[in-house]
Amino acid sequence: MPNRDEHKWLKSMLEELITVADLARHWNCTRDYVYRRLNPSHRQFIPHKRLPSGDVRFDMQELVGYLKSADKPARVPTSGSTVRGGIVMTRNRDRAGTLLVHGRNRKFWLVQWPEGGKRPSHKLGWCDQMTGSQAERAKRQWMEKINQRRELAGDSTTLDGFWQMHYWNKEQQQSGDELVTMRPSTQRDMKCAMHKIWLPRFGPRNMDSLKTSEIQKFLASLIGPRGEGKIGRQTALKFKSYLSSIFSAAIRLEAGVLRNPVRSVRVVAEEPEKPRTYLTPEQAVAIEEKLTDHRHRMAWKLNVWAGNRCGEIRGLRWRNVLWDLNTVVVTESVWEGNSTPPKTKKGYRKVLLTPNQMAELKKYRDQNHPDAGPDRWVFPGKRNRPLDMGWLMSKHIKPIAKSLGILRVHWHALRHLNNSLMLNEGVDVATRMDRLGHVTDRVNLIYSHSGDAAQLAASGAIERRLEAARVCLEKERRTTPQARSPLLTVTQTVTQNDGTGSNH
């Protein structure tokens, strides 16, 4: 029999402890739920004290780590979790799956398993080729993979948290390990799309809670007339690809995401293509003659001759000009002060020019940059940087084009003009692809290779067409000195649907 002092000690201790019923009521769960976690081998073992009588008591001080504090935001439970009194308890029960037989004419074995609110399925094999025991064994092997994949994934993070962890840390203004792998132009566009479109709408949500239907509905609400503040279909596809790449990265980095809901999103049907506007050779020559600065004029002419991308023109150095071979080699692109490789693998290329074109380029160097080293820019700007092509277009070329009656002009229009000139002069598609750095997967172009003679013929065709435009323009000026240049020509297309314009 315990003495009086032992009774006092036991009474004081019991006043500080709670029973199983109290804990179950506090956590809003059953008593069996608590009793199952009293086993030391349980992964969610609950520390407790066992009295001499065998009753179980819990010390609230020891359960502090199991309870959610009021100052922390509540977690959104995943499909494999349950909430008990403010804490998230993860169920680790393996799913066994259900073996079914489906098919009308020919029967096949099918396994189904629960995945949140859905029941995905997987075909195991044909009934006439697999016995029941073999199908049962195949089902167990498949469900082991499913259960293992769920354990590796764990609890997912929010879209905003994953973006800050792997893409862009807003507080430190620093790019993450995923964003630095992209081109500078893609980094800027992706940050703009996420901060203005996706994060305000889905940022606080857990990534595994996002559904295809709500993403598709939200994206469809953004598409519409641009006059009403909406976006076009191509812009919506770009926003979709950015979000899809983030989900793919979350799956690859095992951030608790098992599927990519963006991949199944459908965008509204494409509308009939509207007639496009392109520069004519006469308009290109007219703009060239109005440019007074030697750098501006040569940059315009070289872009018409070679059809390079805007960043490739900025990235030209004098070492890229091979005078003996009449060749300009493209190895670098400059975009917003960042020096990067060309856009595609075929962007590393050589462009042959005619002797007259090379003579004009040499005259430009001898008169303006006679002491320039091989690493200096062909078109230098301020503070040892290449010429700002955007500034040149907005401050010089567009005002000239407006005075000539040309409604719209941009650097990429010269790339279209170069391609259309070669097409109209009968230059084969492989040569055009090599000069412009296009990539295609057409089977009939895999073994097509253009030599230097074909490239030289292409440059000669461009030169002849531009010279003919110059002569035509001079005749018009003689007949009508005060006549304005014709408006921008509207045509349905200038390139054949042969893949030559797929990568600009």
Features:
504 residues; alpha+beta; 3-stranded antiparallel sheet; 12% strand; disordered C terminus
Q: Can you put this structure into words, describing what you see?
A:
The chain is α+β, with helices and mostly antiparallel strands and 504 residues long. It has 16 helices and 17 strands. It has helices at residues 4-16, 20-27, 31-35, 132-153, 159-166, 184-202, 212-222, 233-252, 281-290, 294-306, 310-314, 355-368, 389-403, 411-424, 429-436, 452-479; strands spanning 17-18, 49-50, 56-59, 81-84, 87-90, 98-102, 108-112, 121-126, 168-169, 174-175, 276-278, 321-322, 327-330, 333-335, 338-340, 349-352, 489-491. The strands form 7 sheets. It has a 3-stranded antiparallel sheet. It has a 3-stranded antiparallel sheet with strand order 6-7-8, covered by helices on one side. The protein has a 3-stranded antiparallel sheet with strand order 12-13-16. Helix 9 (281-290) packs across helix 16. It starts with a helix and ends in a 13-residue tail after the last strand. Mean pLDDT is 79; it is low at 67-92, 441-450 and 483-504.
